[in-house]
Structures are given as C-alpha cells and as structure tokens.
Amino acid sequence: MRSLLLALAAVGVALAALGADALPAMDEAAANRGSAVFARYCALCHGATGDGNGTAARTYKPAPANLVASPYPDEYKEMIIRKGGGAIGRSPFMPPWNDELSDQQIRDLLAYLRRIKAKPA
Predict the structure, then answer these.
(1) What does the DSSP assignment read for 11-59?
(2) Over its length of 121 residues, how does the chain's per-residue pLDDT go in tens digits?
(3) Is the dihedral angle over the CA atoms 50, 54, 58, 64 positive or is it negative?
(4) Cα(99)–Cα(57) distance, integer angstroms
(5) Range of the domain at 50
(6) pTM for this structure?
(7) 3-state secondary structure at position 117
(8) Into how many domains does the chain fold?
(9) Is residue 106 part of a domain?
(10) CA–CA separation, 53 and 118 (whole Å)
C-alpha cells in the first residue's frame, strides 16, 4: 500500500512539473483526433492555426472567431459547434454541426481547442 501511495505521489509531482496547461495522456489523444476534425470542418474559416484567418475568412462579416484567443468555456464552444452561431446570437455564418459531427468528434474538437488556446501573458 505504501509503495502505491509513493507511486501516486510521484505521478502527481510529475504532472505538476508539466504545468497546469498540460493535457493528460487521454486528453492528448482526444486533441490529436480533434485536430483532424478541425482540419476537415473548421480550418477553412478559422485558419489552420485557429486564429480566424482561414482562406474563406475574408468573405465573412463578421470574420470567423479567433479560437486561439477565445475567452469562452468549453460548454459555450460546444453550444456554438452544435447549434451554429445564428442560434445563439453569434455569426450566422457559423454552421450547426450537430447533425454532422458525433458526440465523440465534438469532445475531441473541444480537446484540440483547449490545446491551441493561447496561454495568458
């Protein structure tokens, strides 16, 4: 029992050393899958890096959101992804993806968005 507690403590210390923004291994796998979802469904407008400067961005007013600097929590982002921007008072150009993306794809996409989010200065 003591060796198990020591091992758990060592894991805790190692995770703390990685920093609060590091993703656990399972979330990292989700973020990797989410990057493929992002590339297929989001990058055209939001840009390859999520900065809102995708190839199609210049055709939209308002411009697509800069997801790297987005202050919104996952729950709000999920609502926008599922319902589309127009349904919640945001850009009507943001389509609803609820019928296109599975729940898992949306969770993976949110993990990817957490990964690319800019760290506060």
Answers:
(1) HHHHHHHH-TTPPPHHHHHHHHHHHHHHHHHTHHHH-TTSSS--TTGGG
(2) 444 333 434 434 343 444 445 556 669 999 999 999 999 999 999 999 999 999 999 999 999 999 999 999 999 999 999 999 999 999 999 999 999 999 999 999 999 999 999 765 5
(3) negative
(4) 23
(5) 21-116
(6) 0.78
(7) coil
(8) 1
(9) yes
(10) 16
